[in-house]
Each structure stands twice: as structure tokens, then as C-alpha cells.
Amino acid sequence: MGANPSPARRRRTTVAVRGAVGLLAFLAVGEVVGRSGLVAPELLPPSSVVLARLAEIVGDPAFRADVVATVLAWVISLGLALAIALPAGLLLGSVPGVRIATRALVEFLRPIPSVALIPLAVVLIGQGPGSKIALAVYAAVWPIMFNTIYAVADVDPVLRETAAAFRVGRGRFVARVLLPAVAPFVLTGVRLAAAIALILLVSTELLVGGARGIGEFITQAGSGGGRMDLVLAATVVAGLVGLGANALCTAVQRRWLSWSDVP
Amino acid sequence: MSTRLRRAAARWSVLVVVVVAWEVAAKAVPSPFFPPPSAIAAAGWRAWFSGPWLLTDEARTDVLPSLARLLGGWALAACAGVALGLAIGRSRRTSDYVAPLLAFGRAVPPPVLAPVFLILFAVGTPMQLATIVVGVVWPVLLNTADGARDVDPVKIDVAVVHRVAGLRRLREVILPAAAPRILAGLRVSLSLALILMVVSELVASTDGLGHRLVVAQRSFDFTAMWAAIVLLGVLGYALNAALLGVERRVLVWTR
Amino acid sequence: MAPMLEVRDLVVDYGDGTRVLDGLSLAVARDEVVCLLGPSGCGKSTLLRAVAGLRPPDGGTVLVRGRPVDGVPDGLAVVFQDYGRSLMPWSTVARNVAFGLPRDLDRPTRAARVREALGSVGLADVADRRPGQLSGGMAQRVAIARALACRPTLMLMDEPFASVDAQTRADLEDLLLRVRREYGTTVLLVTHDIDESVYLGDRVLVLSPRPAAVVDDLTVDLPSPRDQITTREDDGFVRLRTRAAERLRYPDGAPETPRA
Which residues of C touch A1 (CB under 8 A)? Predict the structure, then answer.
């Protein structure tokens, strides 16, 4: 074999090449369909036009401000949700009676699609960024709290007994045993929360004027001018933002939680 | 069975306590934004269930279109997701080619699809259906692909040795092996479909529960708004419970 | 008449270039039970996969009834080691046994074949249960019944009794000896257990560590029918198992240290 690259390395190259081919093929199909006249170009612009528009809006400070507004609101709402849900989950999860009651409540609240609260929140809180953040926090709290409660109830009793045997104090127990033990579940909760929070943020931006964000940009480009090219370009940016968040979560998991087998 | 009954009783009693507490609080400190549950229930009953054969005309324009879009979109996404997922999961080559596209498709926040399809189809059911289908296909597709990829190779060997191939191998080996993952994906998709049904109707619609919410908001009728929210919650709960029931029957062998 | 199975100079590589089998040859006559005895990881299972047509060889040939193997040969059945993985947990026992039956059989014939196979492994009364509701020994009997239902002329068994407890194992060994007489099946059985190979086999082929080569071919001439108690006490049995153990331990020839 000698000079040949290792099979693992060869496999990585194959994956990269095939992935690129797939992506290019998709863009080519988009280009051909867009230029074929089967669909009006205003309705489905060719890929090259969308990519050109993408380059344009990425260079546009107003659009960049929209993206920052959405991402910032996302980070703030996830931070707030974590700050509320983690302590609440740890507390509620430690008391069996309260745990059962909270789980029941969550089970009844969870089926209510949180986006249905948008019209109410807008009237209650107003059209600024406040309502979208409030809605995103509301939606993001549940998955984190639910997972934390579940994880606390699930902490290996051997760990508790070990800590007790070594006379570990309350504070040290939380810091050294409880938090690391629940961390992988909390991260899973944060992942779910991130997805639902983004859904709430973008939906609110789509529906309510006056709050800057990617959703607002898309609404204006869409219902305002019927500019499909701009809408698609902004959609691509929204997808890239989502990809970035996924990559971040995966990196956190690899870096700090690689010992856990929680997916 | 008795533990299950006891747990259900505990669950429902929590709900009753919360509803009663809300009722008392709303009566004690009246607020137009938070009407008492009794008023919400009465408004909902009057609006949708007081017709000659239970359902009123309003139910026919609010509830039925929403339900049809939700279930239709979810069913279409389920079929497409399972079919594509099987193709991708059973062929490493196919999976290699589409991996970046899948990663991107899954990462797009689904509500932005509503304006895209609004331009493509204008206001109407095709727009809502397309938003739901494209938005909720991912969990089914990715879960099915994972499930189909991870079928125990020994079971595939058994199928090869016994000359069980093609559709029969799919039906008797790969689909059942992937079924737990597929059903998990279907459950995620169902709750997402409910969300997208509401979003797409809020964005642009002339009927459906989302449209009802918009109308109630414009006329500052908060009781009607809460009634729609509660009905959506009941729908979500009922659909999820039904799917869990199906899951229990299909996956008997996992217990 | 061509032997039931003939393997000539078989070469198999793993994907990473490791050679698992390097020129292995062996033959199995009709109606014989041949045990392949070898250390863990020597390539026994790879050999079985090549014979079953599950893995094309990288060199050499496999002939079943004189015909080169290209895909799964006719009249072949395989019993895999791990019943937990080889049975379909979602199907009933009866459906598992029917899994390998030819498509063109009509319903009553299929049902009869399933009943017969389950009967010969003593499981007629659990046809409607699922594998998950059975003990390990029962589940492995289902796997054997699935193989028997196809009326195989050649049955390959990959460590078939390695995942069950000792008592069950003895029962299953006797079951195998009985059913292979009833069905007139040629058996090639892979094992790493010396006693088992001598107890079951008409011949024992001792394999060297990877890449496996046949280092000894022991003919087992023990009185028939064999019995878990008396056969294992037989002088011939003890002599053979000692010989097999030596060859397994010192594949390149025993050092000159005769035991007392």
C-alpha cells in the first residue's frame, strides 16, 4: 500500500467531493429551472441570481443589522431561558411531589403551539423586540427545564451515596456532582430550545412590523415587493445561522461533554 | 395498569388545580387579557360546538381547514421523509451526495418558508400545505435515514442468505428495524406541523384557527383568542396521544 | 462425486488491507459434521461468510457441490452466533421460522414446514410468541429451526452455542446431532471450544492464528450415538481433545516437553 493514502483519509476526500458535487448539482438544477421559463423568473429566480443577491445583502449594513438583531435576540432569549430553567429544574427536580406536578403541567402546556401566543403577546407587550424575546424565552424554558428535571431524577444513586460517604457539602455536591451529571441532558434541552426559540423569533418578526430582524427583512421583501430573489437569499442566510448554531452545540459537546453518551 | 391510572389521576388533578386557581384569580382581579377559564370554555363552545349537529358553521371554517392542512401536510411529509430517508440510509453513496444539502435544509428555521411559498402560490391552502411539508419533513427524513443505516448487519446477512431481497427485505427487515426511530421522528414532526400550520395561517389565510386568532386580535376579543389557543392545545394533546397509542401498538416487540 | 464443500487457496482481506485468510484450503464430504476449531479472531467467521457467499473472496475459490460460489449457494442455511441479532424481534417465532422458506410454497405447505421445524427443536408450543419473550436457549433453537425449515443440504454454524449457559449448551449440542441425522444435513461448525468440537464433529480442523491455516485434521472415531456423559469419559475423546488442545496452543509444532 505504502504511498497510498490511508482508507480513512481517502474516505474523507470522497465524502467532501461527493458533498460538493451534490451541492453544485442542486444549484445547477435551480439555475436550469429558473432559466427554463417553466416558472416565471420572478417566482423562482435562477441560482446565480439568488447567489448574487446573497452577496449583495451580505454587504448591506441594514441587512447585517437585521441578522445581528435576530442573533442577538436569540442569544439573549436562550441565556434568559437557561437562567430561569436550570435553577428551577434543579430545585423542582429535587422534590418528588413537585417534580410530578411540574411534569404534568409541562405535559399540558407543551402541546399548545407557542406561536399561537404571538397575537396575544403583541397586544400585551407591544411591537418592539420585547415581545419576540418574551415569546422565545417562554418557548425555550420548557425543554431546558423538562430535561433538567428528568436528569436530576435520573442522577445515579451511587453518585449521591459516594458524595454522602465522602461527606461532600451541599454546595460542593451541586458543583462537582449534580451539575456535571445533568450537563449533557441540559445541553440536549438547550439544543431543542434553540430550535424552538429561533422559530418563535422568526415567526414574530414575520408577523409583527417594527421589530428588526431577518424575518422582518423577509416580510418586507416578500409581501412588500414580491422579491423572491431577496427572500431566498435571506433564507439562505437564516439557514447558515442555524448551521452555525448547530456547529457550536456540537463543538461544546465534543469539548466538554465527550465522556457522555447522551446524544 | 393501576400505577398508570394513578399517574393519570395525578396528572389530571394538577390540571384541575391550575384551572381552578386561574378561575379564582381571574374573578378576584379581572383583567381583559386573562379572562377566566369558564368564560373561555363558554366562548369556545358557543363558537364551535353549539351547532345543530355539534359543529357550527364557524367550526367548519376555523377548525376543519386547519385540521386538514395539519394532517395532510404531515402525512405527505411522512411519506416523503420515510421514502427519501430509506434511500439515503441504505446507500452510502446517496447519503454522501446529499449530506450538505440535508444539513442545510434542516438548519433553515421553518417559518421563513411561509413567505417563500406565499410568493410562489399566493394565499391559499397550497401555500400552507407546502410550508408544512417542507418544514416538517426533516425530522422524519433524518430519523428514518439513521434508522435504516443502523440496521444490524447480521439481520441483513440473514436476509441475504435466505434470498429475501427488494421490497420484501424492506418490509420485513429494514422498516421494522427502523420503526422506533421513524416513529420518534413522526412525533417531532407532528408538533412542528401544528406550529407551522398556525404560523402559515397567521402569515396569510382566509380561514383556519390561525386566521381566527388574527380576527380576534384585531377586534380585541381576548376571550375568543384564548379559546383558539386552548383548542389548539387540545388538538395537539389529542394528536400526540393518538400517535403514542399507535406507537405502542406498532412497537409491542420493543417491550 | 464432488465433495459438498471445497475451499481452495482462499484469500480474504479486510478493507484496511489486513490479510485475514491467506491461502486456506479445506474440504467437507457429504453428510459430514466438520468443526473448525481456532483461536478468537483467526478468521473463522470470515471463512464462513465467504462460503455463504456473503463476502466475495479476494483470491482462491469456494466450490459447493463442485460449483464455484457466486452469491448464496442453493440449499445453504446459516445459524449465526447471536440469536439476539439474527432473529427478527418484531416477528413471531412462526414468522421467523418461515422467513427463509421459498416464495413459491403455498400457505398450507409453509405452515406445515414451520410446524415440522419447530417440532424437531421442541418448540411447537411457542409459535405465536416473540423472540424477546424466550430464553436464550429457546431463541437459538428458533434460529436452528429457521435453518432446518429450508431443508438445507449444507448448514453453516458460526459459534452457535457460545451465547448460552453450559446446561443449555449441552442440550443444544445433542439437539444438533439428532436433527442433522433426521434431516441428513452436512454441517460446517465454527467454534473456539475444544470439547465441543470433538463432541460434535466427525472431523476437527484445527486452525492457526491469523491468517488462518489448517494445522491439523483430526478424524473423530467415537462410538455413536454420542452421549454427554459417556462420550466425554471415553479414552478416545480425551486423547483427541488433548491433541486438539496441543495443536491449538502450538500451531507450529509442540515443543519437545512430553507431559508426565
Answer: 17
Q: What number of residues does chain C have? A: 260
Which residues form the domain of B131? 54-254
CB A137 within 8 A of CB A80: yes
C-alpha cell at C115: 410446524
pLDDT one-digit tens code per residue, A211-239: 788 988 998 888 777 888 899 999 999 99
User: For chain B, how many structural domains are there in total?
Assistant: 1
What's the mean pLDDT in C160-189? 87
In a domain, B9, yes or no: no
Closest CA to C97 of C138, C149, C151: C149
Would you say residue B151 lies in a domain? yes
What is the average pLDDT score of chain C?
A: 86
Per residue, the 3-state secondary structure of B133-193, as one string, reads HHHHHHHHHHHHHHHHHCCCHHHHHHHHHCCCCHHHHHHHHHHHHHHHHHHHHHHHHHHHH
Comparing CA positions, the residue from A250, A203, A239, A206 lying closest to residue A224 is A206
Q: In what order do the strands lie in the sheet with C59-64?
A: C19-28, C5-13, C59-64, C67-68
- What is d(CA A88, CA A181) in angstroms, rounded to the nearest whole number? 16
CATH of residue B240's domain is 1.10.3720.10
Taking a C-beta distance cutoff of 8 angstroms, is the pair B56, B47 a contact? yes
| Tens digits of pLDDT across chain B (255 residues) | 577 788 788 888 888 999 999 999 998 988 888 899 999 999 999 888 887 888 888 888 889 999 999 999 999 999 999 999 999 999 999 999 999 999 999 999 999 998 888 888 888 888 999 999 999 999 999 999 999 999 999 999 999 999 998 999 999 999 999 999 999 999 999 999 999 999 999 988 888 999 999 999 989 899 999 999 999 999 999 999 999 999 999 998 887
The answer to whether residue B38 is domain-embedded is no
Long-range contacts of A79-82 (CB under 8 A, 24+ apart): A80/A133, A80/A137, A81/A136, A81/A137, A81/A140, A81/A141, A81/A144, A81/A193, A81/A197, A82/A144, A82/A190, A82/A193
- What is A72-256's CATH number? 1.10.3720.10
Instruction: Name the residue type at position C69.
Output: V
Distance from CA of C243 to the nearest CA of B (A): 34
Contact C100 B161 (CB under 8 A): yes
Give C157's contacts (C-beta < 8 A, 6+ positions apart). C78, C79, C176, C187, C188, C189, C190
Overall residue count recorded for chain B in this entry: 255
Give me the residues paired with residue C157 across strands.
Answer: C79, C189
Which DSSP string corresponds to B198-221? Answer: HHHHHHS-SSSHHHHHHHHHHTT-
Closest B-chain CA to A43 = B120
* Residue tagged 420572478 (cell numbers): A42
ipTM of model over 0.90: no
Q: What is the DSSP string of C21-74?
A: EEEEEEEE-TT-EEEEE--TTSSHHHHHHHHTTSS--SEEEEEETTEE--SSPT
With a cut of 70, say whether residue A154 has pLDDT above it.
yes
Quick check: is B35 in a domain?
Answer: no
Q: Using a CB-CB distance cutoff of 8 angstroms, which residues of chain B are in contact with residue C85?
A: 152, 154-155
CA distance C92 to chain B (A): 9
CA-based torsion, C217, C221, C225, C227: positive or negative: negative
Which residue type does A24 have? L
Say if the Cβ atoms of B161 and C82 lie within 8 Å.
no
Beta bridge partners of C154: C76, C186
Cell numbers representing residue B52 in the block: 345543530
Question: pLDDT tens for residues B193-250?
Answer: 999 999 999 988 888 999 999 999 989 899 999 999 999 999 999 999 999 999 999 9
Spatial strand order of the sheet with C214-219 comes to C76-79, C154-158, C186-191, C33-37, C203-207, C214-219
Establish if C16 touches chain A: CB-CB under 8 angstroms: yes
